[in-house]
Amino acid sequence: MATDVLKYVLEAKEEFDRTLLCKHTSFDDLYPFMLEDQTFFWYKRHAMWSSLQTAVKIADGLGQNWQEAFAERQVRMIQGRILDKKVLDEWLGQEAAAEENETVE
After folding, report:
1. Which domain of life is it from (predicted)?
2. What is the pTM of this model?
């Protein structure tokens, strides 16, 4: 059971990461008709953040150490529970942003 819970935490983290990078996620498959709507991307970010928060809350409740899968700054953001500009801007860190820019060029 513990492994399954941590698997869901990792999946939620990956989906949130992909959302912030504006990449395709399973959420897009649920609402394909919304992809053209500009507000969809904001809604998707909030939905994926909520999914991550839920997975972490379940892992916490089962006494699982989910923190090892995250950078220290990400753990602080998750524990802060508020999806704000700082989370959107700093979640992936500078190294991920630099890596993303390299793949775009």
Report:
1. Bacteria
2. 0.82
